[in-house]
């Protein structure tokens, strides 16, 4: 069964074509990609990153072209139903419902979080159920117990800033630009992660919640003090020490969650799952604990249509369908 | 500060602020920085005054405590503890349900009013909830007439200086009440 998936919950409009039977991604297109810029004559104003209405058709067309599939061959439509800005979600969700209705196709609404939870299943080496999932991005940092393709329960989440957001804000503070998560990680490679002891927010012995706001403030206070004294900032050391504080908490709590679930598998999802230090330390911890780690490739970590296609395919098989008057939602019941 | 003291607060320190002019958008700025506990109390007390359709703009640099203040206001608006008030920087908007609906926006990532309009954020101002906006300069000419401007400035790690500016009749009528809220024990030097 060929599935067309659409995702428009935040900045990017994304579409994917997916072969359900083979569980293979045939195309995975995001509006920020070069191919889409070319369709706009190479000039996409920054504003256009949020103009889902203008983006959706070029993105869907590009996905179908790349997959070498015509619209007539599509048998299922899947779209992100929430969470996110309702105005943004409605573009993709209404497009999907309309297309399905006109073509007489089934349509499935998917939670964006479910996409990230399942994204490691897009890879050849995929986890068996049950597993513990850490979804970590600019907007979310959450732990889930994943019982099956359609059953997940939240174990913890951030109480203030998401991990990716902390990276972006530290980058801003160090005048490295915004968003600057990847820049911080790159500079951290040349720094000493033990140079500065920034605080780790554990939030109580058994808590699986996260908090990164205090860490952001601690970095800020450290930087302000040095600037006031006129001392030079060792940017690489600050980046490495900050990153270490984030990663250490993520790794420890994820392993604790897996242990609490008696799970032997951990899967990562979300943009920060591409962070090399997180992957390295998580792998080391998993090796130590006898756990298997599953991490999707970067294109499936960031917001993408492929994960929505996969989640849609699973939900379709579980008998889920959207009603034509179903609405998009801003807050995830999963989070 | 003892939470039990709050009931006796209104009026107690009014004398310190009574010379403040509030009729033509003069800032209400009591002298002296507040510690973070006092700021939290201010947030919860301010929540008690809020009406459907109110707009609060939050100004202050990274780490000044804008999101923390929003958390306290949300708590004062009876947003349940199961609804974590987390940063909306990435999502642009987070919604919560309390005594009134709460719309918490962070416009940091937007470049200007076209972006604000494009994201459909203005619609929420008509939803009869309480809208709190961080980095409101992105609103440009879209800014409505009636709103409370809250400035948070960092004095040091533990203390913040709070300045309030009432814009429009709705807030100017509540200015005296605000003055009293802000006059927390220890807030004066």
Task: Outline the fold blueprint.
The complex is a heterodimer of chains A (335) and B (189).
Chain A (H helix, E strand, L loop, with lengths): L1 E6 L6 E6 L4 E7 L3 H6 L12 H16 L8 E7 L3 H18 L3 E5 H7 L12 E6 L4 E8 L2 E7 L5 H11 L7 H8 L24 H17 L5 H27 L3 E5 L6 H14 L2 E3 L3 H4 L4 H12 L18
Chain B lengths: L13 H4 L16 E2 H14 L5 E5 L6 H11 L16 E5 L3 E6 L6 H6 L11 E5 L12 E8 L4 E9 L1 H4 L2 H8 L7
Parallel strand pairs in B: 2-5, 2-6, 4-5
Antiparallel strand pairs in B: 1-7, 3-4, 6-7
Helix pairs in contact in B: 2-3, 2-6
Please describe what this structure looks like.
The complex is a heterodimer of chains A (335) and B (189). By secondary structure, chain A is an alpha/beta fold. In chain A, 42% of the residues lie in helices and 18% in strands. Chain A is built from eleven helices and ten strands. Chain A has helices at residues 34-39, 52-67, 86-103, 112-118, 163-173, 181-188, 213-229, 235-261, 276-289, 298-301, 306-317, and strands at 2-7, 14-19, 24-30, 76-82, 107-111, 131-136, 141-148, 151-157, 265-269, 292-294. Chain A has a five-stranded mixed beta sheet with strand order 3-2-1-4-5, with helices on both faces. In chain A, strands 8-7-6-9-10 form a five-stranded mixed beta sheet, sandwiched between helices. By secondary structure, chain B is of the alpha/beta class. Chain B has helices at residues 14-17, 36-49, 66-76, 113-118, 169-172, 175-182, and strands at 34-35, 55-59, 93-97, 101-106, 130-134, 147-154, 159-167. Chain B is globular and about 40 Å long. Mean pLDDT of chain B is 82; it is low at 1-23 and 185-189. Chains A and B meet through helix 3, helix 5 and helix 7 of A and helix 3, strand 3 and helix 4 of B.
